From TrEMBL:
Keywords: Metal-binding, NAD, Oxidoreductase, Zinc
Pfam families per the UniProt record, alphabetical: ADH_N (PF08240), ADH_zinc_N (PF00107)
Superkingdom: Eukaryota
Domain Enoyl reductase (ER) stretches: 17-372
Protein name in UniProt: Enoyl reductase (ER) domain-containing protein
GO terms assigned for molecular function: S-(hydroxymethyl)glutathione dehydrogenase [NAD(P)+] activity; zinc ion binding
PANTHER family recorded: ALCOHOL DEHYDROGENASE, ALCOHOL DEHYDROGENASE 8A-RELATED
Gene3D superfamilies in alphabetical order: Medium-chain alcohol dehydrogenases, catalytic domain (3.90.180.10), NAD(P)-binding Rossmann-like Domain (3.40.50.720)
Matching InterPro entries: ADH-like_C, ADH-like_N, ADH_Zn_CS, ER, GroES-like_sf, NAD(P)-bd_dom_sf
PROSITE patterns: ADH_ZINC
UniProt cofactor(s): Zn(2+)
């Protein structure tokens, strides 16, 4: 392409300060360096993790930044040493890399990669950024920064997808859908004929419901304090719905009463430590498995040992346990083969200039997923 090897000036939504609206700015995106890829971002979802670092985390080292990590685009150019991609490839950038060479990548026990940052941010993170504005380097959030028309990502953090994939749909596979669906099928390992409870019915929670159904769960209880989400949960496979506000007793007691002692599998998809405890206590004490899916790093969890001693398993998962490159390609194919849903998650489509509206929708639980059309394909 004509832009290969040159600095690209383009639009991006820049977060200059904590908990302030994003500003559409002209940014400069440097050419990719060794083992890097420059991607034209076509569409990006707005995820709760973006909101967490923008409005809750209060880590001032994060700013200024370009957020966004759930996207799809087209390879514009590649740096020296790149062998897996070429200009024109349809791709999904990954906030979790898969180098295929480290001890984590070679182990079937984890989907982590030694080369991943796991959300850690410090001054060195700015040094590696390829995006700048007004003479300042901007943090590339989770190494991706998809609220920009162009971004540069490491080769180990990009998944090539089928050329037939619609980018404004499969962008959701880059975070929320894999996270929730994989939490059920990979982390919890939901069994056919089992009972499940999913706490939180945003995109991640609904994807978890979809995963429970795909695994053959007989009963799936969807839990949320917003009853407007219940019909959507049923579309993805929920058999029962529970609003904790409708009951005087704690929700785990409600679920225990519905299931003769608790569910076989519970999944917390909110990122709230109190809900994490409720999800654990909702599982059968003798063999229940409870998975923490929602992200937070602000508070400790308090639990009494007896809630685990009798046989419960409490575990966590990131990106649904998928090895990133392999999982994203497989989930894209599953969508094209109509084995998983994506369209049903999308409640809003809007241009980059309206990204603050998308954020407000997410803050106020007025959408499942807003897809931002960053640039034309």
């Amino acid at each position: 392409m004509a832009t290969a090897g040159k600095v690209i000036k383009c639009k991006a939504a820049v977060a200059w300060e904590f908990n302030q609206p994003l500003v559409i700015e002209e940014v400069e995106v440097a050419p990719p360096q060794e083992k890097e890829i420059r991607i034209k971002i076509v569409a990006t979802g707005v995820c709760q993790s973006d909101l967490y670092f923008l409005t809750k985390c209060m880590n001032k080292v994060v700013f200024p930044a370009v957020f966004g990590h759930e996207a799809a685009g087209i390879v514009e150019s590649v740096g020296p040493g790149v062998t897996e991609f070429q200009p024109g490839d349809k791709v999904i950038p990954l906030f979790m890399p898969q180098c295929r060479e480290c001890r984590f990548c070679k182990s079937p026990k984890t989907n982590l990669c030694v080369n991943g940052s796991a959300g850690k941010v410090d001054e060195k993170s700015f040094e590696a950024s390829r995006i700048s504005c007004k003479g300042r380097k901007l943090l590339q959030f989770l190494g991706t920064s998809t609220f920009s028309e162009y971004t540069v990502v490491k080769e180990i953090a990009v998944a090539k997808i089928d050329a037939a994939a619609p980018l404004d749909k499969v962008c959701l596979i880059g975070c929320g859908i894999c996270t929730g669906y994989g939490a059920a099928v990979n982390a919890a390992k939901v069994e056919a004929g089992s009972t499940c409870a999913v706490f939180g019915l945003g995109a991640v929670g609904l994807a978890a419901v979809m995963g429970c159904k795909a695994a053959g769960a007989q009963r799936i209880i969807a839990v949320d304090i917003n009853p407007e989400k219940f019909e959507k949960a049923k579309v993805f496979g929920a058999t029962d719905v529970v609003n904790p506000k409708d009951h005087s007793e704690p929700v785990h007691e409600v679920i225990a009463g519905m299931t003769n002692g608790g569910v076989d599998f519970s999944l917390e998809c909110v990122g709230n430590v109190e809900v994490m405890r409720s999800a654990l206590e909702s599982s059968m004490e003798a063999w229940g498995v409870s998975v923490i899916v929602g992200w937070t790093d602000m508070y400790d969890i308090a639990i009494r040992p007896r809630h685990l001693i009798c046989g419960r398993t409490w575990k966590g998962t990131v990106f649904g346990g998928f090895k990133a490159k392999d999982g994203v390609a497989a989930m894209t194919n599953a969508y094209l083969e109509k084995k998983v849903k994506l369209d049903e998650f999308i409640t809003h489509n809007m241009p980059l200039e309206q990204i603050n509206d998308a954020i407000e929708l997410m803050k106020n639980s007025k959408c499942i997923r807003a897809v931002v059309e960053v640039s034309p394909p």
